[in-house]
Amino acid sequence: MIEVTAATLAAHPFLRGMPASALDELASFASVVAFPPGRRIFEDGGYADKFWLVQSGHVALDMYVPGEGPVFIDTVGMGEPLGWSSLFPPYRWAFGAVCVSGLETFEFEAAAARERCAADAALGYEFTRRLVPILAKRLQGTRARLITRSPGRVDLC
Fold first, then answer.
1. Domains present along the chain, CATH in parentheses
2. Rounded percentage of the chain residues whose pLDDT exceeds 90
3. CA torsion sign, 35 to 54 to 80 to 114?
């Protein structure tokens, strides 16, 4: 098993420039996890207990539409976070995720992250400050795709 250190986390674009003490905290509950192409990481509506920082590869985000099945929403790739639903109640996946290519990630236990962020306001603020612009961008992209998509059409990349 590959050890995750503050130095390895510091190189990830999402965490770049984060204080060393915060990186030490995050490294204490992180691991390196790889997924093969085609692997479904999580399902829309399922219980969310982990989040990931993508090191390489791409994931397609989809959502289940009754009568149509999974509908492509967005992609997540190198340098981006995946699984933000695990950080906020009700801890249910807002989308599903399937690997488009092989994927290498830093994986984090969400409960540990929530506990650490609640106990350390500076860490919680720093993490949230980095996450909110990404969430806003993804939500705007999702909105645009849903408005412009043709009914009955399912695009999985």
1. 6-148 (2.60.120.10)
2. 65
3. positive
